[in-house]
Specification:
The protein is α/β, with parallel strands linked by helices. The protein is 28% helix and 15% strand. The chain has 2 domains: 166 residues, 3-Layer(aba) Sandwich (Rossmann fold), CATH 3.40.50; 145 residues, DNA Methylase, subunit A, domain 2 (DNA Methylase, Chain A, domain 2, Alpha-Beta Complex), CATH 3.90.120.10. The protein contains 12 helices and 11 strands. The longest helix is centred in the first third of the chain and has 13 residues. One of its GO terms (molecular function) is DNA (cytosine-5-)-methyltransferase activity. It is an enzyme of class 2 (transferase). This is Cytosine-specific methyltransferase.
């Protein structure tokens, strides 16, 4: 596209959603997040975009526009944190907990883009018996947008992960967006995603030692000159010996009774299933293990499961990198 549609990504994190938009031919100009680590990665991976560390509790779109010189935009995307929604009667009220969502609305009101995409947790659709969803639609309809929403399952769209996200899409001039139909009934597995990555740590930039073992690996390697973010976590001997008792795709129920309660969470001691999509990648809680190796997935393995290409390099501490990966929208789903 010669004149690519321009995009601002609010609450962008490391930029999974906006990276998907770049791959789809959009021009991402700006990403805003309050977390500096995420913005450092964002700027490193979104070459034409500016990243700003800003608290959207406090900064208005007018101030951001003045700071960046961005006056017009075609699309606004992002995922404001909505877990703490405060509602009264039949609508979202002007409570501090709703301010980040209200900030997203104010950016759409200020820039009046041709379209917006707001993503969120799937239960936003059912919160307050549908009051939150109805309020969101009403807020954007008042600004002149036709709004449609859907909960999408990432594994139906080429991501090797059963991750659900809710998307609200608004368009102007009575043009209604149509969500794509699932592209596969045979989802990619965890093995399809990461079987070419070795058991041990690699120095950043290490060349690939094997050919891709799946079409997905070939796609995700792209033009990468090597492997990055593949530093393993060294577990205690006890942890390693316990996880060695769990089979591919198993969990705490596969352990002897006396070992089951060594971690008091029902997701503990869960292995990826080599034949199925991964469960939702989290921010590095260390309860989920590789389907074969007796360790948690590396940042790169987690990134593969999230559909980040190998050229997308995460910066910051390892703990920070896990959080950046886990909080992101899978780029292929954004695409």
């Amino acid at each position: 596209m010669k004149n690519k549609p321009t995009v601002i990504d609010l609450f962008c994190g490391c930029g999974g959603l906006s990276y998907g938009f770049i791959e789809a031919g959009y021009d991402v100009l700006l990403g805003i997040d309050h977390w500096k680590d995420a913005i450092v990665t964002f700027e490193n991976t979104h070459k034409n975009a500016k990243g700003i560390v800003a608290d959207l509790f406090k900064e208005t779109p007018q101030e951001i526009s003045k700071k960046t010189g961005i006056k017009n935009i075609d699309v606004i995307i992002g995922g404001p944190p909505c877990q703490g929604f405060s509602i009264a009667g039949k609508r979202i009220i002007d409570d501090e907990r709703n301010q980040l969502y209200k900030s997203f609305v104010s950016f759409v009101d200020f820039y009046k883009p041709k379209a917006f995409v707001m993503e969120n947790v799937p239960n936003i659709v059912s919160m307050g018996k549908g009051i939150v969803k109805d309020s969101i639609i009403e807020d954007f309809e008042k600004l002149g947008y036709s709004v449609i929403y859907k909960v999408m399952l990432a594994s139906e769209f080429g991501v090797p992960q059963n991750r659900r996200r809710a998307f609200f899409v608004g368009t102007k001039n009575n043009k209604e967006f149509v969500f794509p139909e699932p592209i596969t009934k045979n989802p990619l597995s965890a093995k399809d995603a990461i079987s070419d990555l070795p058991e041990k740590s690699l120095t950043d930039g290490t060349k690939y030692k094997t050919e891709p073992k799946s079409d997905y690996q070939k796609l995700i390697r792209g033009k990468s000159d090597g492997i990055y973010n593949h530093e393993i976590t060294n577990h205690s001997e006890q942890t390693t010996s316990i996880i060695s008792l769990v089979p591919d795709g198993g969990n705490y129920k596969n352990l002897p009774e006396e070992l089951r309660k060594t971690r008091n969470v029902n997701i503990a001691w869960t292995r990826l299933n080599s034949k199925k999509p991964s469960f939702t990648i989290d921010t590095g809680h260390r309860h989920h293990f590789h389907y074969k190796y007796n360790r948690v997935p590396t940042v790169r393995e987690s990134a593969r499961i999230q559909s980040f290409p190998d050229t997308f390099i995460f910066l910051g501490s390892k703990t920070s990198q896990y959080k950046q990966v886990g909080n992101a929208v899978p780029p292929i789903l954004g695409n």
